[in-house]
């Protein structure tokens, strides 16, 4: 008699709303001031502004818009500022929450940038748990929780941990971790930095 496979999880993407909003605002401000300096600046100012934009825009994108954690039935994909880590579920050794949310694989630790830890949210969730415990110390009466008893990022890590446990033995979820550097971010950042240094040094 064969053992039925656990149901495959729906693909899901985790991102930080605060980071997305911050990134959009920073890009808008950078475009406003940068284009104005390029259009109206005199002498070397337009070139300095252009070099600064080439340097800063990829960094803003890397730290605010790029980070994401994507889970599907076969793998966990962690997109951090300068690299993307693809982890088949069998390669996930541990998912843990501390001062940062992290995943361990083959003795290496990768931070989940898209799931930042909020100590304030944790304290709020802990207070909600304490109120529930005081209201029903023996847990005998089902209650409707008005507030979450776990922060959003901690809950996301717990969900990912459960998926990893269910899918680790699946044939399609086998394989080693694969790390790819984000050269589309690194290359323009390096070009902008070099151009800015040259312009300042020769000014």
TrEMBL record:
<feature type="region of interest" description="Disordered">
    <location>
        <begin position="132"/>
        <end position="154"/>
    </location>
</feature>
<feature type="transmembrane region" description="Helical">
    <location>
        <begin position="181"/>
        <end position="201"/>
    </location>
</feature>
<protein>
    <submittedName>
        <fullName>PH domain-containing protein</fullName>
    </submittedName>
</protein>
<feature type="transmembrane region" description="Helical">
    <location>
        <begin position="20"/>
        <end position="39"/>
    </location>
</feature>
<keyword id="KW-1133">Transmembrane helix</keyword>
<dbReference type="InterPro" id="IPR019692">
    <property type="entry name" value="CFP-6_PH"/>
</dbReference>
<dbReference type="Pfam" id="PF10756">
    <property type="entry name" value="bPH_6"/>
</dbReference>
<feature type="compositionally biased region" description="Polar residues">
    <location>
        <begin position="141"/>
        <end position="150"/>
    </location>
</feature>
<keyword id="KW-0812">Transmembrane</keyword>
<keyword id="KW-0472">Membrane</keyword>
<feature type="domain" description="Low molecular weight protein antigen 6 PH">
    <location>
        <begin position="66"/>
        <end position="135"/>
    </location>
</feature>
<feature type="transmembrane region" description="Helical">
    <location>
        <begin position="46"/>
        <end position="65"/>
    </location>
</feature>
């Amino acid at each position: 008699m064969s053992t039925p496979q656990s149901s495959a999880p729906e693909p899901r993407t985790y991102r930080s709303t605060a980071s997305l909003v911050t990134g959009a605002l920073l890009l808008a401000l950078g475009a406003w001031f940068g284009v104005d300096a390029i259009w109206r600046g005199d002498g070397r100012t337009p070139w300095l502004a252009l070099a600064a934009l080439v340097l800063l825009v990829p960094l803003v994108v890397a730290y605010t818009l790029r980070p994401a954690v994507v889970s599907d039935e076969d793998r966990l994909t962690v997109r951090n500022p300068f690299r993307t880590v693809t982890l088949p579920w069998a390669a996930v050794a541990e998912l843990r929450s501390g001062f940062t949310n992290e995943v361990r694989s083959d003795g290496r630790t990768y931070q989940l940038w898209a799931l930042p830890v909020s100590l304030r949210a944790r304290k709020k969730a802990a207070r909600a748990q304490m109120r529930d415990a005081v209201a029903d110390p023996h847990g005998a009466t089902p209650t409707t929780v008005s507030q979450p008893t776990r922060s959003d990022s901690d809950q996301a890590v717990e969900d990912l941990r459960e998926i990893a446990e269910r899918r680790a033995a699946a044939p399609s979820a086998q394989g080693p971790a694969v790390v790819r550097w984000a050269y589309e971010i690194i290359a323009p950042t390096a070009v902008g930095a070099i151009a800015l240094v040259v312009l300042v040094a020769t000014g």
